[in-house]
Amino acid sequence: MKASVLLKSSLFTSLFVISSCATTKYSEDIAQNNYSNLDAGKIYVVTPRDGSKKQTILFRNIDGDNIIGTKGKKDSTEVIIPKSNIASVKDRSQGRVVAGAAVIGAAGVAAIVISSLRAD
Fold first, then answer.
1. Side-chain-facing half-sphere of 98: CA atoms under 13 Å
2. Contact criterion met (CB below 8 Å) for 26 and 38
3. pLDDT band at 1, cuts 50/70/90?
4. Predicted pLDDT at 60
5. Domain 2-119 has CATH 2.60.40.10
6. Phi, then psi, of 22 in degrees rounded to 5
7. What is the pTM (predicted TM-score) of this model?
8. 76-94: per-residue pLDDT in tens?
C-alpha cells in the first residue's frame, strides 16, 4: 500500500510538471518559424544558437528578420536579436508558474506520503 500511493503520487506530479512546459523552440529555417505567439510587453528569456549568454528582454515587436525589445521594464536599452540566432524563447512568467506548481505538487506528495505512513 505504501509503495503504490508513493508511486501514484510521484507519477501524477511528474506528469503535471512535464505538461506545464513553457518553452518555444525554433528551427533553423526562419521561414517556418512562427513568432506571432510572442506578446508585446511580456518578458522573455531568449537562448541564442551561437552559445552566447541568454538574454532577458521585454519584447516590443518584430521588424523584418529581427526581434526587438528592451533589456527590462526599467532599463530602456534597445536589444535587437536576429531571428536566425534564436534557438528558443521562454516566457519568464510561465516559468515562475511552473516552478510554483512544482513546489505545491511536491508538498502535496509529501503530505500524502506522510498521511499514508501514519495510517498504517
1. 16
2. no
3. very low
4. 92
5. no
6. -125, 35
7. 0.59
8. 899 999 888 888 888 766 6
Helix (H), strand (E), coil (C) string for 6-69: HHHHHHHHHHHHHHCCCEEECCCCHHHCCHHHCCCCCEEEEEECCCCCCEEEEEEEEECCEEEE
- Residue 86 phi, psi dihedral angles, 5° rounding: -100, 120
In what helix (H) or strand (E) does residue 81 lie, and over which residues does it extend? strand 78-82
- Which amino acid is residue 70, in one-letter code? T
State the Cα–Cα distance between residues 34 and 7, nearest whole angstrom: 39
Only one residue has cell 533589456, namely 71
Gap between the Cα atoms of 25 and 96, Å rounded = 18
Domain map (residue ranges) of the chain: 2-119
d(CA 59, CA 17): 26
**Helices 2-19 & 92-119, crossing angle to 10 degrees?**
170
